[in-house]
Amino acid sequence: MGSATALETNRQLQQIRLYYRFPDADIDRYTLARNGETPSNENDEQRQVLIAARELDYSAVPQQAKTWVNRHLIYTHGYGFTLSPVNTVASGGLPEYFVKDIGVGEEGALTVASDAVRDSIPIENPRIYYGEIANNYVMTPTSVKELDYPSGSENVYNTYDGQGGINIAPLWRRLLFAKYLNDWRTIFTPEFTPETKVLFRRNINQRIQAIAPFLRYDSDPYLVAADTQEPASKPPSSLYWIIDAYTTSDRYPYSAPTNEGINYIRNSVKVVVDAYHGSVDFYVADESDPIVTTGRQSFPTFSNRSMLCQRACAGIFAIRSICSRFNRSN
User: Fold this and answer.
1) Angle 148-315-119 (CA atoms, 0-180°, nearest 5)?
2) Which spans in 192-283 are helix H?
3) Which pLDDT tens digit goes with each residue over 31-62?
């Protein structure tokens, strides 16, 4: 089943509510434990799959529900993803899902096909605060509970405990953000607490562009579910966005320019964005790129590719396959 077909099927079967949306579906490879066996190198099975993030689309919220509180305090994040094999289908020609649904299972919000999938794919915290269509700012935690996900005719609520955002408890910060966001309600709203933070610039494409505008970015970020073994002091995150970044120049010798006015382009950087915490890490994939070598003198926080493998490849073939692509020679 092609990604376009699977995406359309997802939108029909798995959006669950009008305010959810699957912006994209990407093909990747994951290592799954075989049914009934303990995950190990000997028992692992590589599967090609389609993965799609279920993001929150606030523009689809009914008009009567579009209040300031709903927009900025309650409808704050998407939830979960679907994962389906590309080479098998269920009865009736519908996709077979390894991970699907939301709020219908007894063992968690997401439904998994088997214990082997549960052991192989991390789904503990599939909340998406930073994504491809997260275009509005939100404030959390507040005295108002956030909509986490629907469960039948009821809703489940949650409070953000991630590391993203900037605390706006001091009055001077409220004034500053009221001016910056052009939203004077932030000064007077009674729902804020001393722990309230504002999460802004949550669209991952805009976020990375603001951090490193000198790079060019692939227009199609892809989602990865991975256990990165974060420190115990940091709330766990299960979902990450990976974006290919390119160095470019219009002054490379003996090379004709393209229609875009450049004559040099190299996929030398990979960007990893935490969908829950919003942290952004840049990893150098091609250390022989002279532009990257020069740029790292000004931006020493750019990590090398081995650090990406150590952080993002723990137990998951999806990013391990990326690391192997890093090591291929041109």
Assistant:
1) 60
2) 204-211
3) 887 655 555 556 678 888 999 999 999 999 99
SS3 call for 274: strand
Query: Crossing angle, helix 317-326 and helix 305-312, to 10 degrees?
Result: 170
Using a cut of 0.70, tell me whether the model's pTM lies above it: yes
Distance CA 254, CA 133 (A): 41
Q: How many CB atoms lie within 10 A of CB 84?
A: 25
CB 312 within 8 A of CB 224: yes
In total, the chain counts a number of residues equal to 330
CA-based nearest residue to 240, from 53, 101, 57: 53
| ω into 141 cis (within 30 of 0) | yes
With vertex at residue 83, the alpha carbon angle to CA 80 and CA 85, rounded to the nearest 5 degrees, is: 175
- Which residue, among 241, 275, 237, has the nearest Cα to 125 in the 3D structure? 237
CA angle 68, 73, 79 (to 5 degrees): 125
- Asked if the model's pLDDT at residue 8 lies above 90, the reply is no
Q: Dig out the tokens for 277 from the structure.
A: 């915490």
Residue burial 231-269, b: 16+ Cβ < 10 Å; e: rest: eeeeeebbbbbbbbbbbbeeebeeeeeeeeebbbebbbb
- Helices marked H in the chain: 3-13, 68-69, 115-120, 171-181, 185-188, 204-211, 290-298, 305-312, 317-326
Phi, psi of 279, rounded to the nearest 5 degrees: -65, 145
- Residues 54-83 as b or e (16 or more Cβ within 10 Å = b): bbbbbeebeeeeeeeebbbbbbbbbbbbbb
Tokens describing residue 241: 């966005």
Q: Tell whether the model's pLDDT for residue 68 goes beyond 70.
A: yes
Which of 328, 326, 321, 329 shows the shortest CA–CA distance to 306? Answer: 326
d(CA 172, CA 160): 23
Residues contacting residue 100 through CB under 8 Å, at least 6 positions apart: 14, 82, 83, 84, 110, 111
Residue of 244, 206, 237 lying closest to 325 (CA atoms): 244
